[in-house]
Every structure is written in structure tokens, then in C-alpha cells.
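Deviations from the work plan: none for this task. Representative record:
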Amino acid sequence: MDTWHKIVFGNCRDMHEIPSNSIHLMVTSPPYYNAPFDYPGFFKDYEQFLQLIGDFSRELSRVLAPGRIAAYVTDDMLVEGKKYPVVADVTRIMIENGFRYRDKIVWVKPKGYSRISRRSGVVLQNPYPMYFYPDNIQESILIFQKGTFDYGYARKLDRKIRVDSRIDTKEYNEHEWYLTVWRITNVLPLPRRPEIGIAAFPDEIPRRLIKLFSYVGETVLDPFLGSGTTMKVAKELGRNCWGYEIDLELRPVILKKIGYKQPASSKAESVEIVRRNDAGRFRSSLQKRVSSKKSVTKGRLGFHQPN
Ligand SMILES: C[S@@+](CC[C@H](N)C(=O)[O-])C[C@H]1O[C@@H](n2cnc3c(N)ncnc32)[C@H](O)[C@@H]1O
């Protein structure tokens, strides 16, 4: 099936390019607040991060079609010894903006994986009470819905669309998609991977969500596109996709990931790119900051994302 893909380099708190009620599914992972390994000092403070999620959610309620799903992959974040309750705050903000909280799936990564540091070793050095800090190997996949879905719409879809969108129940059972715990290997931290500093999720997450919550030919949105994983998978699964990304430096990574060739060889590869004035350049400065391991405090970085 011919699909189209539109990438807007700009801030997703304004998605005026997207017509109201035209998105059938959102799959995204917002920046992990000021995560030490990817986004140190990206936000001025936690309030600015929450403000972005709030502004974005209001825009999302305009563009998402009635009855459809919005899925966030996110996690609470430990920054300079303080744990920020991102999962609870995103849930609260979405509910305040009129979405129904439908489900939470826990994405469990392999046991040896730890993004920040192995805190659990503290007990080995001090095997006494009060020295326990667990290693984190999970994230949350938060699932919200805009009202209720009209199943009459699904029943009236073209037969071919229904056949092509059918969920493989063997895979569903064998890989335990039906549980609230999904065991999926994360993007491996290989030294020259294109996703360095982007905190990309593995293809398998958008693949499951797109298959479970959208039909072939429908339109998926990733407002925090990053390396373009959602768009790549949407394309493979015959869905259209809108992606917003604030960082212009990610353009080559995204285009490579979605296999963009210019000029498009067929209508089946239709890709449109818009560059807005509210995009910026962040990745190199963030990565420099990460590698120099300077302590990052409010006001010192000079490249906070704009309000
Ligand atoms: C966690 S990453 C997304 C990774 C993506 N899921 C992938 O697999 O590559 C979050 C992305 O959101 C982008 N971003 C941050 N603030 C934004 C904003 N206000 N509007 C659009 N994109 C934003 C960041 O530059 C970053 O690339």
C-alpha cells in the first residue's frame, strides 16, 4: 500500500500542520527529562518539562481522532540524586486534559541492562539495612484513549484492509503480548550506533502498538520522533506517519533510518520534510556535556529548549 511520511522539524507543542481528528494512533517517548546520559540540562527545570507535556497533550487532544489511542513510553528519572515521578505526572496531565487512562504495560529489559549506574552494589559493600538501591530495568508504556472507539467503523472497513491488519494470534500468544509485562531487548549500546544520545526504543515496541491499535492505511503520529523508529516501523507496516522533532541535528539519522532516497523513486516512498523556525540544534552540545561529565546545573548550559 502507498503511504506518506511527513517530518516537521519544530516544537510539537504546536502541530498546526496536522488537521484536527486525523491521527489514528500516537506512539512516542518524550525526552527523559534531564536524563544524565542523553539530556543533561535539556530542560531548565522539571516544571518546564511538565509544561511541555501539558501543552503537547492539549494539542494532541485536537489532532487525535475520537476513540483512538495515545501511547507514551517513559520512566521516572533519577537526576543528581533526585527521583522525578514522570510516569505519575504524565498520567495526571493526560487525565486532566480529558484522556481516559486505559492501561500500563511494563517494558522489562534484559537483566544485565542498566542505563544509569549499578546502584545495587552498595549492599555488597555495605551488607546492612538501609543501603538498598535497586537497578532499574523497566519502563512504562502508558496507554490513553480519547473517548471510546466506534467498533462499527472497524466492521465497515474494506475487507482487504481488515485482512491485512489482522493480528497474528500465534505471535500474540507465543510472545505474550496479552500480558501487562512485555519482555523486550532494548537498543544495544554499540559504540557506533546511529542512535547514540537519542534514547531510542527498539522497533518491537512501536511494532506491537501499531499492530494492536491501528489499521493498515491509517495515520500514526510520533511527536518526539528522535531517530525515527516509529516512522520506520509505520512505513514497514503500511501506515502513514507524522513525526515532529525539535533537533535539526537528527535529520540525517532519521532519513537513514526510514530509508529515504531523494528523489522518491515511487509514490510508495512519499516523504515530506518541513523545517520550522522553532527547531534548534541540541545533540552535539548534549553529547559534549555527557562526555565531559561536567556537573550540570540550572542556568549553566545555555541551550535549554525554548518554552
Ligand atoms: C526519547 S527521544 C525519542 C526517541 C525515539 N523514540 C527513537 O526511537 O529514536 C525524545 C526526542 O524528543 C525530541 N524533543 C524534545 N523536545 C521536543 C519538542 N518540544 N518537540 C519535538 N521534539 C522534541 C528530542 O530531541 C529527542 O530526539
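Confidence is low (pLDDT under 50) at residues 294-302.
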